Structure formats: C-alpha cells, structure tokens
Predict the 3D structure of the following.
Amino acid sequence: MLRELTFVHESTGQPWANRMMGLLRRANQRCEAARQAGETALSARQIRWIDKRYAQILAEAYVSNPQATREHQRRGRVKQSFAFNLIVRLRKHAEAALRFVTDLRVPFTNNLDERAIRMPKVKQKISGCFRTFKGAEDFCIIRSYLDTMHKQGHNLLEVLRSTFRGCAPMCASR
C-alpha cells in the first residue's frame, strides 16, 4: 500500500495519499509501542480513531478522484485512473488493510512474505522452470521449513545437521 500511495502522491501531487501514508505509519508506531509494552491489542478507542480517520481520508480521496464515465455509447468497462482504483481497493479491503491494528500478531509489512517467495522465483529464473510439480512442491516445503526455523532464531546449519541425522527440530507453534 505504501508503495502505491507514494506513487499516487508523487505522480499526481494529491495530498490525501500522503495523509494516508502518515496515518498508516502512526498506526504502526502505536502498534509497536503496544507490543513493546506487552499488550495484546490497541485500545478500542485507538482502533475507532484509526478506522474513522482512514474512512475520512478515503472520502476526501473520492472527491479528488471521481469515477470516470463514458461519453459515447460504447461497450465494456470505462478505464479508471490508478488513484481511483487504489481508493476502491483500500475501501473494499479496509478490514484487511488495517488488520495489523486489530491483531498485533499481524506485521505491518509483507516484506517477510516477499522474501519467502523470492528464492523459488530466483530458482525458476535460473533453471527456467521446475522439472516437475512435485519438485516445486518439495522445494517450497524445504524453503518454508528453513525460513520458519530461521525466523524462530535457530542456527540453520544445526537444523540441517539434525534433520539429516533423523531428528529434525520442530517449529514452535503460536
């Protein structure tokens, strides 16, 4: 979202995108502070304020980016601006976009997810493809296991050694 909001702000100069980025970053700071304090959730009052401000910014954005309409009677959908499509997605998926606010276990960014899928994409680019679907599945399972163990602070060399000895460490569950 931040990349797309940055693009809208830089390409169109619309201030709503900058305000939305600021809101999301402040919300993330509040979530980080709550995590540091050992809390499991933001207060209901904080969540309501963030939700209300989010809706206000999107309402302002709609005013700046009205839906395009067709001038001539032709078939098909009318092409909308990038900003309008982003606003529609932000409104439609508001609950998912603000999930990090209502559930402090959810990270603010998807950087870890992107990092997790980077390796299969690199392997696919280098070799052109996986030979079989089963090979791709096996590769993803192994990478997922190693990535999880790394995130949980395990030494990957020791994890691999233990695995090859027949006593693979188990991932901790939440």
Notes: The chain has a mean pLDDT of 85. The chain has two domains: 2-102, 111-164.
